[in-house]
Write a structure and sequence with these properties.
- The complex is a heterodimer of chains A (126) and B (300).
- By secondary structure, chain A is mainly α.
- Chain A has 2 domains: 66 residues, Winged helix-like DNA-binding domain superfamily/Winged helix DNA-binding domain (Arc Repressor Mutant, subunit A); 47 residues.
- Chain A contains 5 helices and 2 strands, in the order αααββαα.
- In chain A, helix 1 packs across helix 3 and helix 2 crosses helix 3.
- Chain B contains 12 helices and 13 strands.
- The N and C termini of chain B lie far apart (52 Å).
- Chain B: This is ABC-2 type transport system ATP-binding protein.
- Chain B: It comes from Tenuibacillus multivorans.
Chain lengths: 126, 300
């Protein structure tokens, strides 16, 4: 991943989301050790304090847990939590924007659903 | 812990006030960026922190002591700028060998490896180096000294883009492996914003803002939309910058005091909400007017 320094999303949030995706993709599994703030700082060329902020965000959301002196590890139910969070926050936000744009373009409900179904079908056929 | 405290520091040169009641505390082992316009007082401040001069009024403490004429401070501090002077009769390899006598944590091997990487011929004299190579050598010297307080005053002067990127990376790696207090003054905030933990914005000799980089970046937002709509939503004292786009639209940079819902409302009413990048924000905040250079050309 490349960080987007121009995004409205703060860097530490981007780091947290990248780590979440790593967990979702099973690159880091349950009870496995998460990257340290220093490893992340090196990987993304950012200040270690910023990386720590991203990690702490995941600890506060119970996606990671701390073991004193050993580092941070992936919670057993991390995946479920991440999926739930993404559904509630990201997906809803995207749909909000989608609906707003549809209103702006005067696309009614049925037409919008039709487009959604069409896109889903296209993806399935690939 | 605060490693440097500046209390009400003022300094004038002839009739020019370089620093005017500057207050700030630098925390230990943080990487802080000192940002400001030309003549804002950056160099004056840094030089007094490392003991090259005394404040006219106010007080500076470094490691709990007055840095001027102070052996403890000078042994634990390195100041890198483009006027660094090394003994004229010494070649580069002699300089990096001698440096170990002054600096306890000096890593001569690192200095040598960096010199090879950056293509510095160790058999030449310092004053024979080109501008960019001289800055590169000074930077290497500053990193290799591993001083608890490392101060870079516009270290990238003359360096090309790729050398600068390598420098930032080397700085970060050194900082991770050997944490120390680093102050970096620069005009290239967009290049190093990711590296910095804290930022100090200095304007007319005063500390305008001292924030974590994350908070600084979230400090303001840009709004683009019809003039009336925007004026209805913002208070004049929160506007840092204003520009007309076409005849009916305007772009303003304002203090971000909008909740998520308020931002959604703004978008709903056709106002675009965008991020203001750190370099632009610091430019707007340190500007004397709200219209920038455009104000000069405005025909009234």
């Amino acid at each position: 991943m490349v960080l987007n320094h121009d995004s409205t999303k703060p860097i530490y949030v981007q780091i947290a989301e990248w780590l979440e995706t790593e967990i979702l993709n099973d690159h880091i599994s349950t009870d496995e050790k998460m990257y340290s703030q220093y490893q992340l700082a090196e990987m993304f060329n950012i200040n270690p304090a910023t990386a720590a902020k991203g990690l702490n965000m995941l600890v506060n959301n119970d996606i990671l847990y701390k073991k004193r002196g050993l580092g941070m590890f992936v919670n057993p139910d991390a995946k479920g939590k991440i999926l739930l969070k993404r559904k509630n926050e990201n997906l809803k936000q995207m749909i909000r924007e989608l609906v707003q744009e549809a209103e702006y373009l005067k696309v009614d409900h049925d037409e919008l659903m039709e487009i959604v179904q069409q896109v889903r079908k296209e993806r399935k056929d690939r | 812990m605060g490693i440097i405290t500046c209390q009400n520091v003022s300094k004038s040169f002839k009739r020019t006030k370089a620093l005017n009641g500057f207050n700030a505390t630098f925390m230990e082992n943080r990487l802080t960026g000192l940002i400001g316009r030309n003549g804002a007082g950056k160099t004056t401040l840094l030089k007094m922190i490392v003991g090259h001069g005394t404040p006219e009024y106010g007080r500076i403490q470094v490691f709990g002591e007055n840095p001027f004429n102070n052996l403890k401070v000078s042994a634990n501090t390195i100041f890198v700028d483009d006027e660094m002077v090394f003994p004229a009769e010494m070649k580069l390899h002699e300089i990096i060998k001698m440096a170990g006598l002054f600096y306890d944590n000096w890593d001569g091997e690192l200095a040598e490896r960096l010199m090879i990487y950056f293509g510095l011929n160790k058999g030449v004299f310092h004053d024979q180096l080109s501008k960019g190579k001289r800055s590169t050598f000074n930077m290497i010297f500053g990193l290799s000294a591993r001083c608890p307080l490392t101060v870079f005053d516009e270290p990238t002067t003359g360096m090309d883009y790729s050398v600068r990127q390598d420098f930032y990376r080397a700085l970060l790696k050194e900082y991770i492996n050997h944490p120390r207090t680093i102050i970096l003054s620069s005009h290239l905030l967009n290049e190093l914003e990711g590296l910095l933990e804290d930022i100090i914005l200095i304007k007319n000799g005063e500390c305008l803002i001292h924030e974590s980089m994350e908070d600084f970046k979230a400090f303001a937002v840009g709004l683009t939309g019809s003039k009336e709509h925007i004026e209805a939503h913002v208070r004049e004292e929160d506007v840092f910058y204003r520009k007309n786009v076409g005849s009916t639209q305007s772009y303003v940079v304002v203090r971000d005091q909008f909740s998520q819902d308020a931002k959604a409302d703004l978008k709903e009413s056709g106002i675009q909400v965008t991020k203001v990048d750190a370099a632009d924000l610091s430019m707007h905040l340190t500007s004397e007017t709200k219209g920038g250079i455009d104000d000069v050309f405005k025909q009234s």
